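Batch job 17 of 40 flagged for manual review because the log was empty.
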Amino acid sequence: MQPSNILNIESLDEGWCDKDHVMLHACFQLLSDFVEKEMRVNDFPDWNANEAAKKAKEEIEELYAWWQEWKNEDSHKSNSFREDEKQYYKENQMLKRLIDVRMFMWT
């Protein structure tokens, strides 16, 4: 079992990365770990327990799919300021959506 105070962020290399980017990658690494190592393995929480749980599961799956696609794209790397600003807005929206389903990320 890995210590809970260590997070291996697979989408980052060992080089320098500004903390705003680390935050994005860390949050979505936590989501990825949850989906791949807990959600797909365990039967808890009961995703059919109520409408909120069903919607949370859908949202978690959508966020996970977005992240898998995003981290493999080159379009968000080294853009113009205007493009970076637009990308930042999208990433922030996805982070906010992730925060909204945080309470369902337990098994």
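Reviewer: the log was empty due to a logging misconfiguration, but the result itself is present. The radius of gyration is 15 Å. Unflagging and moving on to job 18.
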